[in-house]
Automatic annotation (TrEMBL):
GO molecular function: carbohydrate derivative binding; glucose-6-phosphate isomerase activity; monosaccharide binding
Keyword Isomerase annotated: yes
Species: Megacorax gracielanus
Catalytic activity: alpha-D-glucose 6-phosphate = beta-D-fructose 6-phosphate
Protein name per UniProt: Glucose-6-phosphate isomerase
Record's keyword terms, sorted: Gluconeogenesis, Glycolysis, Isomerase
Record InterPro entries: G6P_Isomerase (IPR001672), SIS_dom_sf (IPR046348), SIS_PGI_2 (IPR035482)
Isomerase as UniProt keyword: yes
Family: Belongs to the GPI family.
Entry GO CC: cytosol
């Protein structure tokens, strides 16, 4: 699954969960040492916010179906207000946080693109079906308690998967 935190402070979350999940559940044998008749584990990866948008969101929207976890924080740890800017950087980041799951859910049809005056030759490249799985987690603030909750969600998921897979 893709772990996509929209906070630079969570840049180490995806690699941490990747290690916890893939090491714990990446085995081909049961707890008793017997070969399992099915594949276990999942491939976890991710990048913070717009870094991921520029590197692998094309695949998520138009290629392989990959469950995505979007993680946003209501209150910015370091709000930046630039003189003359109508929208601050955190609000712009959160706009992306809300838009990406919607795009994955609803997609974009050729008809919608035509209404947006997209060039005919680009329409096949910009069309995507939607109906892609995602989870949005919105934290009020980013503090030790909330980070603990976030880690617990992923650790519990790994444990339950491990119990199910044996």
């Amino acid at each position: 699954s893709a772990i996509l935190p929209y906070s630079q402070a969570l840049e180490k979350l995806a690699p941490h969960i990747q290690q916890v999940s893939m090491e714990s559940n990446g085995k081909g044998v049961s707890i008793d040492g017997l070969p399992l008749p099915f594949e276990t584990g999942e491939i976890d990866f991710g990048e913070p916010g717009t870094n991921g948008q520029h590197s692998f969101y094309q695949l998520i929207h138009q290629g392989r179906v990959i469950p995505c976890d979007f993680i946003g924080v209501v209150k910015s740890q370091q709000p930046v207000y630039l003189k003359g800017e109508v929208v601050n950087n955190h609000d712009e980041l959160m706009s992306n946080f809300f838009a990406q799951p919607d795009a994955l859910a609803y997609g974009k049809t050729p008809e919608q693109l035509k209404k947006e005056n997209v060039s005919e030759h680009l329409i096949p490249h910009k069309t995507f079906t939607g109906n892609r799985p995602s989870l949005s987690i919105l934290l009020p603030t980013l503090d030790a308690y909330r980070i603990g909750q976030l880690l617990a969600i992923y650790e519990h998921r790994v444990a339950v998967q491990g119990f199910i897979w044996g």
